[in-house]
Amino acid sequence: MNALTKPLNATEARRAARNHILTPRLETPFHPRLAALDVVNDWYNWAGYKAPHSIFDEELEYFAIRSTAALFDISPMVKYRIKGYDAERYLNRLTLRDVRKLAVNRIHYTAWCDDHGHVLDDGTLFRLGEQDFRLCCQERHLPWLLDSAFGFDVEIFEETEEIAGLALQGPTSHAVLAEAGFAGTERLKPFDIATFPHDGGPGCSAVTISRTGFTGDLGYELFVPRAAALSLWDRLWAAGAEHGIRAIGYSALNRTRIEAGFIVANADFVTAEGALRADRVRLPDEIGLDWLVDPDKPSFNGRRAILDARRNQSLKHILVGLEIEGNIAAEHAIVYHRGKREVGLVTAATWSPTAKRNIAIASLERPYGTKFVDDLWVEIYAMRELKYQKMMKRAKVVPRPFVKLARRTATPPGLR
Amino acid sequence: MQRYDVLVVGGGHNGLVTAGYLQRAGLKVAVLEKNGWVGGAATSRELTPGFLYSNCSYVCSLFRPEIMRDLELPRHGLQVVAYEGGAVLTRDGDYLASYRDHDSHRREFARYSKRDAEAYERYARDVTRQCRFIQPLLMRTAPDPFGFRPRDIAELVYLAKKFGEFSPSEMAETLRFWTMSISDFLDEYFETDVIKAYLAISGIIGTALGPMSPGTAYVLLHHYMGEVDGSVGAWGYARGGMGAVTQALASSFLAAGGTIRTDAAVAKIFSRGGRTTGVVLESGEEIRANLVVSNADVKRTFLKLVDEADLPEHFVHRVKHFKMRGSSGKVNIALDSLPEFPALPKGSSCIRGDLHFTDSIERMERAYDDWKAGRWSADPMLDAMIPTTLDPTMTSPGKHFMSCFVQYCPPKVQGRDWTDADRAAFAETVIGQIADYSPGFRDRIVHMEVRTPRELEAEVGLTEGNIFQGELTFDQLLFNRPVPGYAQYRSPIAGLYICGSSTHPGGGVMGAPGRNAAMEILRDLKRSPETMSNAHDVI
Amino acid sequence: MTSSDAPAKSSTTSATAYDAIVIGAGHNGLAAAAKLGRSGRRVLVLEAANAPGGAARGREFAPGFRSAGLPHLINRLDPEVARDLGLSLSATPGHAMPTAVLDGMNEPAVLRGAYGETIDGVSAEEAAAFGRLRDKLAFQAGILKRFLRRPPPQLGAIGIGDVSTLMAAGFGLIRKGRAEGRDFLRMLLMNVADVAEEYLDDDRLKGLLSFDATLGIHLGPRSPTSLLGLYYRLTGEVDGKSGGQFIPDGGMAAVAPAFLKAAEGAGVIIRCGARVGRILADRGSTRGVVLADGSELTAPVVVSAIHPQATFLHLVDPAETGTGFLRAIRHVRTAGNVAKLDLALSRMPNFTGLTGRDHAGRIVIARSMAHVEEAFNPAKYGEFSQDPVMEIVLPSLADASLAPDGACTLSALVQYAPYRLRQGWETGKPAFLKIVLDILERHAPGIGRTVVAADLSTPVDIEAEYNLPGGHWHHGELQADQLLINRPTGAASGYATPIEGLYLASAGAHPGGGISGLAGWNAARHILAGGSR
User: Fold this and answer.
1) Residue of A nearest to B164 (CA)
2) Is A4 on the interface with B (CB under 8 A)?
3) Which end of chain B has fewer CB within 10 Å, C or N?
4) Do B110 and A17 touch (CB under 8 A)?
5) Superfamily of domain covering A278-398
6) What is the pLDDT of residues A212-258, one digit of tens each?
C-alpha cells in the first residue's frame, strides 16, 4: 500500500502546521494579483480558499469570456497525482471511461462511482505520462482513492496546494498565449496537453498548458508549481493587455458553464459520499453522464449496478436541458407536467446572452424528460420589491450545450 | 390538607418538564423536592462565594427545543450559548484541536493525517444518518412489541416504515452501527490514534463501558443527536450554569400556577388496591393525590418509595437487576485566574470548549479496566470545560469556574464504601493530570468540590451515582427501559408514573422522558395534549 | 497482490469442464461439494494442502504423537446436515462428554448430560438455578436456530421464506407467553456476565459460562453482546439436546474422512496439493480458476470455502470488485485470540480432584468471571494473558492411535493469545508456553515431567498452517455486527458475491464457524435454488 499521506518527518511537519488557524481561509497563489485587481470585494469560500464571486462587474466579466480573454483562478480545484506501474489499470477500475484509450498528453472528462453506481464526483483526468496522471475535481476523495488502491502498484498524493492553476478563456485567449511567447500552442487540439518553457524561478522552468476549460469557449488551462504562480500571471497579464484580458470571478464563469451545458457536483447533483438521504444519490445515466460509461472496458466501480439499472429500467431520474419562455432565470424552480404534476427541479439556470434564450439544467423524474418532453412548465418566483411575481412558464427539453461555438474546437485557433 | 391532582416526586429537569406540561394542561400539580433547591442534576450552586458551579451536568445540547418553546423557557431566562470547539492535549506536547469552522477543522486533522481529515467527512455523514433515524424516536413512547394493542402495532409499523426508508446497504450499516464498539467503528475511518481518542469520548461518556465495548458506537448518538438552535450536534453552555435550565423550568411551572415544595423529601408513595393515593413526606406529612409521578430513578422509586408487597414479584426482580452502575465522578474547581495551556496556540478558541488529556483509545480502555476492577482510574479520562470563558455571569471578571467530568469512578471502591481519603486520592489523579499540561494550575485553585458516585447518590439521589439513571445498553433501551412491559412511563400501580431518565429515551439533560410521560398521563386522563407542540420534523 | 492480467496460456487450459469448482477441502468445502454432487453436478474440489480436512486435518506434532487438527471436540454438528449428507459421525448414544470446571481450590464442578443436566460438586439449589438458566438460554437459542439453516434475509428483497422464518420465530416466542418473549428481546444483546450474575452464585459455573461465551471471540464476559457466543454454542446439539459435546467414534481424526466420504460418495473429485492462484473473473463474472502452476480450470460456478479475505484479497483481481466491497472485506475483524496447545505426554496426566473417567471429558480452567475478564484485558492491547483460561481434552483417550502405547496426548485451547502480539510471537511464544505449562502443572501436578513434546500454535502459526487470515477459527469475529446480513459483509452475505458465479461457503459466511457444516450446506442449497444475489 502506498502511505504517502504522511510526510517524511511527521512530527515536525505536524508542529509546523499548527499556525493554520491564523489563516482559516487560505489564499491561492494568485491571491495578491486578484486582490490588487479586485474592486467589489465579493469573496466566497471555495474548498477552503478565498475566491472571488466577481472582480469588478459580473456582467462585464461574462463578456470578457465571450468576447476577449478572461483569467480565472482554478487553484482551489482539488488535484490528485496518481503514478505507478498500475496507474492505468487502477484508474480504469476507478473511473467510468476507458483510460487505455487516453493517450499521453491528453485529457478526458470522466466521473467515478461507488459500488452502487452512484456518482461520487466528476472531473478531468490528465495523462501526463504513461504511468503518470492528474485527477482534478470538485470534492475531496483521498480516502476513496487510497482505498481503491488496494492491490494496485500506485502512488497517490494530493497536490492541490502545491500546484497553481489558471484558466485563460475566451476568443483571444490563444492570441494572449502567442503574445506571451508560448510558441506552439496553436497546435494544441481540444484536450491536448503540452509543456512550454517558463522561467518561474528556482525549480520551475516550464508550464503545463492544456486546451481545456469550463466555458465552452476557446480556452486553456495552465498549471505551474505554486512558487511560479505570480510570474505566470504577470506574463499573461502583460501579454493580454492588447487582447482585452480581464480577471473574472465565479459568477461569470458559472453563466458560461450553463451555456456550455456542464454540470457541477453538489449543485446539479448530490455526490454519493455527501448525500444524507438515500434517494438523493444519482447513477451516471440520471445526470446525463451515460455517455461516459463504457460497458466493454474491464470492470470498474459501479458497473454492475449501472448495467442492472439499465436492463431493469429502474433509472429514476434524468438531467435535461430546458429552454424556458421569457427571460427570468428559473434557478431552483419546480418543474411541472401539464402545469400540475410536479416532476422535477431546476438545478441551474440563467439568461444566456450568447444564445439569447432563457436556459436551465433540470433534474426530472422519469419518464418525464424521456417519454414526456412536452407540456412542461416551470414555476418561477421572482422577488420584485418585496413581492413574489409568480409565473408559470412553458419549458421544452432541448439538447445541451445551449451554446456551441466553432472557435472552441478550431485548430489552429483564431486570434480574435 | 392541600389536595393536588398530581404530585411529582423530585424536582429534576424531567420532573419539572412533566409538572410544567401537566400544570399547563389544567391540572393542579405540586413538585416535592428533598433538597433545599430544585434542579436535580442540572443545578448552578454557589459553593464558594463568588463562584457558581454547574456541579453535576455541565453542558447543554440534547434539551429538546420543542420543550423550550412549549414551556416558554427563554422568557424564563434560559439562554444557551454554543461553544467553540475543543482540544485533546497530547503527551508529546502537541494537541489536536476541533474547530467549528469546517476548513479549520479539516486542516487541523490534516496535521495528523490528510486521509483522516478527509475521512472525517464520511464519518460525520454516516453518524448524521444514524442520528436522523434515532431522532424521531426520542419524542415518542417506545412501542411494546408484545403489547398487541392497536397503538403498539401502529407504532411498530411506523418504525418499520422509518427503517424502510433506508436502502438495503444502509440497513445493514445501521445494524452494524448499533452493535459495534466505538473503537472498531472509528478504526474503519481513521488511522490516527489521537483523532480516534477524541471522537471516542462521545461513545463512552456516562456509560459503564469502555471504548472497546460493543454498543458504544450507538452511545455516540446520545451525544450527537442534540442541537443548539438548529445547529445539529452542537453543544453549548447554559448562561448562568446548568441550573439555568431547571430554574427556567421551575419559573415557568410556577408562573403557570404550580407549587414547588423544597426540603420535602418523600418517604413513601402510598397505594391501595393497586391504585396510588398519595405520598408521605419524611416529616410525616401526608399529601393525597390520585396521580403520582416519580422523577426518581427506577430503583429508588420502586425499591425505596413503594412498598414491595404492592408490586408484582417479576417486576421487582427486574428492577433490582436494572443496571445502574455509576461510572463517573466530577471535580468542580474555582480558579482565581484562567489556566494556561502552553501547548495550545495563543488566543486559540480551544480553551472555550472541551479539553481532554487522553490521547489514545488504549489509555481510555485501561482507565475502564480500572473501573471494572473496582478502582477509580489511575489515568482518568477527563472532559474539562471552563464555561466562564463564554459566560461572565458565573464568576466575577477574571475568575473562572472549571468543570471536570471524570471517567471512570466506581460506585464502590473494591466492594467497600468510599472514604474521604479515597475521594482526595481520586481528586489528585484529576488535578495531577491537568497540572501536567498547565503549569501553575494548582496555585490558581481557590476551592474545589469533588463528587464521586457516593456524593451523586447522597445529594442528587442518583442510585449508585449513575448519571443516566440506568446504563444505555441494548437491554435497557427503548421498550426495555426500564422494564419490558413497563416501558411506557406507567407502573404496575395505577396512577403511579415514572418520568426520569430511567425511562426511554434515557439520560442527558434532554427533557424527552418528562415530556413523553406527560403525554401518556394526559392520554390516560383522556385530555388532548394541546399545550404540547408536535415534535420537530426530521427532514 | 494480483499482478496485471496476463493472457491465459491456451496450452495449459484444461478441457475438462466442471459444473462447479470448490476451493478448499475443509469440512464446509466438502459439505458444499457433497450437496452439489448429490444433485448430479460435476464438482471438483481443489485443496492446497496435501490432504483434505482443512483445520480438521491431522498432523504428527512429535514422533509417534498425532494431533487431529484444531478442533478437539464437536458441539455444533447440525443433525440435518449430517442426515442429509450421510455423515457417519456419531457418539455412542448417551455419551455426551462431561465438562469439568477447575478452579484450583475447590473440587471440580462437573457438568453431565447436555450442558449440565446434572452437576456434581455444587449445591442442589445452584444446580437447579443453573438448570433454569440453561433452559431459558436453550429456549432462546432455539428461536435463533431457525435462522441458521437458511441464508440470512436479504434486506430490500425479503422473501416468503424469510417472512415465514420470522413468523415461526415470533410464534415460537409467543408460545411461552409474553414474559418469555420480552425476556428474549431484552437479553439478546446482553453480556454473559450480567445474565450469569442474575441466576448463579457459584464462581466456577459463572466462569464456565463466561468461558464458553467468549471462546474464540474477542470479547470478555462483561462486554455487551457476549451472550451471543453462548447462544451460539447452545444452538448445537447432541442426541437432540442442546449444548452437549462429543468426540465421535474413532476420535476427531474421523471428522475429515466422514466429510470426505460424503463428498466422494456424491461423485465429487477431490484434488489435493492443488493450490488456486487466482479466481478468473472478467467484468463481474467468474468462469473458473487458475492454479498456482498456471493451469486453468473452468466452471460456471466457483465456491470459495476458504476465508473471505483469503478469497477476495488474494485470489480475485481487486479490479473485479468494488472499492466499497473490498474496503468492507478488509474491515472484517478476524484477529484470532486462541492458541492451540498439543502436548505429547509419556503417560496420562492426573488433574486434581477429577475421577479417571472424567479425564475423558472436557476440562475447563476458569475460576470465575473475573478470571476470564482479566485474561481478556491484556488481549485488547496486544498482550497475552498472564493467567489464561483454557479448555482441555485428552484426545488419545478416544483415539489410541494418536499416541504410542501408554502415552497420551493433551489438547488445549488457550485464550487470550492475540494475533497481533505487540512483542511479536517470536519471543512471545516461549513465554506464553511457559505460562500455560505452569498452569497445567498447578492443576495436574507432575504433568511437566511427563511432557515429551509441546507444540503451541499461536494465531500466527494457525494463519500460516491453515491459510486462515488472523488465525481466526471462525473466519472472522462472531460478533453481532458481523452476523447474518453482515457476514462477512452486506454485499456478500447471502453466499452469492458481487462476482456472478462466485459463492462463499466457509465459516466466514453465515452462520459462522465450528464443525457444523451449515455454511457449506446452506451455500450449496442456495446455489441449487438458483443462486441469485
Assistant:
1) A278
2) no
3) C
4) yes
5) Aminomethyltransferase beta-barrel domains (2.40.30.110)
6) 999 999 999 999 999 999 999 999 999 999 999 999 999 999 999 99
